[in-house]
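Sample intake sheet
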Amino acid sequence: MRGETHKAKIVAGTTTQVPTLPQSIAYSLPHVAVWFLFAPLWQVIPGVYAKYFGFTLTSIAYAMLAARLLDAVVDPLIGRASDIYKDRKGSRKLFVAVGGIAYAVCGYFLFVPPPGVHIAYFLGWFLAFVVAWTTFEIPHMAWASELSLDSSGKTRLFAIRVSAGYLGLLLFYAVPLLPVFHTTTITPETLRWSATIAGLLILPLLVICLKVTPDGRAPTRPRSSAQLGLGESASTVLRAVFRNVPLLGFFMLIALVELSNGMWYGMIFIYVDSYLGLGKQFAGMFLLAFLIGIVATPLWYQVSKRLGKNATWGIAAAILLVSYAFTAVLTPEHTTFANLLVLKGLNTVALVCVGLMEPSMLSDVVDYSQWRFRRNNAGLYFSVYIFFVKAIKAIGGALGLAIAGWYGFEPSVPIHTQSSIFGLKLAAALLPCVLVLVSFAFLARVPIDARAHATIRRRLQQLKDRETRDAQTAAGSCREPV
């Protein structure tokens, strides 16, 4: 195994791998550059293309939905291919490297369109961008589930990963504040700088990640070459998903929260810039909020250790609900920068927890699957998760844009009617509030807590020990007598 050897400790009678702090940081570093470009895709890019390039909100919404159709095919293939490569070569690093480099290239063309850009250009590079992101993100997240075996260790690793992502977001929103620009509003020029900076960052961060981080544990039961093909039937893949009850409960929960998240993020730049008239404050609002997010990440980790992941999720959802409700009451006449900072601060604190808990909870479900079905489904499950989150967020963003467009809201006009303002608030705040309220009913459907996960880990260790004994017995019986 390349890189430093994992630390090992005994937890509930099992050997538990825990990556060192330098390994955890190295693993997370590429996320700085990745999130430098990815999060603005949802809340900034639609607004910039609408305001500066004359795209209608409905045309952007249709393009984003079309991209999801491709994801439905690409994401599971990348997840399975990543699992197969891991089983054969013992590593997911090739996918992480290729996806990260392609992501920076595609991001530049999406963020820096030529004059007279057409909707086909936006659609094409949007598709390429999200495919490159998927090629990086699925193996990178599945890799984390193999680096640490105990539930708390997974949460710590994902907490560092989330912090790296928020550092990338902070860098993006710091760009418009640079003295080289005449305004702090996010413009096509600031997007060009952002794409260039992210492209320069991604390669050295990938090199550090791949050199320092170990490959992680091997599957509990390696499969033969005949079992490692991509040609598994659709029914086999579907059974691996739909027979996993904890996985289904997890997806029901995140569907509602991520749909609300997609609607809010898809509309917030337009809401602040075109409705509140505070576009110059947008970058500063996000910059300070993401500083808050970086501080909040280790605090959420401590809360989850004390209260458990489900209770921690519930607290975050309640804070998210408050942020949506606060959005609905803001008006152009009475909104200040302090109001915006409170709004985005609450929203960021909640979403930091969501971003931390989701992959950590899914990683526990991966262990359940490995014990229950005797196969390594990490890449498949994370591919389904990433596709699901992307699809739900895109549906939320497209739905928000479409609702605002149906009510006649246009970002390029200076005066808005009461009907168009209602449509904007319905999309950005009111419907997201309803979705989060409904999500509380599904929180109890995620049954794997710390005690259940410890039991799963013991059973996996017992299975591994039995397989080791069987292999030793078989090897001994094959030896020729001296």
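Comment: The longest strand covers residues 7-11. Residues 9-218+236-470 form a domain with the Growth Hormone; Chain: A; fold (CATH 1.20.1250.20).
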